[in-house]
Amino acid sequence: MKIHQVSVFVENKPGRLLAPCETLAKAGINIITLSLADTHQYGILRMIVPDWQQAKEVLERAGFVVNVAEVLAIEVPDHPGGLADVLRAIEQAGINVEYMYAFSERLNDKAMLVFRFESADAAVAALAGCNLKLVSNITPAGKKIT
Predict the structure, then answer these.
(1) What fold is seen in the domain 70-136?
(2) Pairwise CA distance, residues 136 & 37, whole Å
(3) Angle at Cα 68 formed by Cα 93 and Cα 58, nearest 5°?
(4) Distance separating alpha carbons of residues 140 and 30, to the nearest angstrom
(5) C-alpha angle with apex 76: 30 to 106, nearest 5 degrees?
(6) What is the DSSP string of 40-61?
(7) pTM of the predicted model, to two decimals?
(8) Domain 2-68, CATH 3.30.70.1110 — does that match?
(9) Residues with Cβ < 8 Å from 131, sequence gap 6 or more?
(10) Which segments in the chain show pLDDT lower than 50?
(11) pLDDT (tens digit per residue) in 82-120
(12) Residue 38's beta-bridge partner residues?
């Protein structure tokens, strides 16, 4: 039910974002979805990839600072109020959302959002009875995401 997100710290200067993306491309690793958060001096490139362990290894060998975090991908009804319903369930469970971003692919008639919680395990347990589908196996081009 949890998936792994690879985060790379990049200096906030022209060309710095290209380097980790090229490194993954040269290793044949596809980026399924990503988010970039920035400050004045650095950015955090958060990515979901088919093989997080390989991505981490490749990026670290190339000299990048890499962090892996457990996140949840949640199906969200793709209609007005769909996200509000999901956030209401999360709030009622007393779970803090550290950050979230949209997934670039859709599953059937659902949108997907990636959430980082203070505790992924607590979020899984709390959301189990909320009629929300947690996505554990995302299979773009036949590749399993874990």
Answers:
(1) Alpha-Beta Plaits (3.30.70)
(2) 24
(3) 160
(4) 10
(5) 35
(6) SSEEEEEEE-S-HHHHHHHHHH
(7) 0.79
(8) no
(9) 89
(10) 141-144, 146
(11) 899 889 988 988 889 999 998 766 666 676 778 778 788
(12) 43
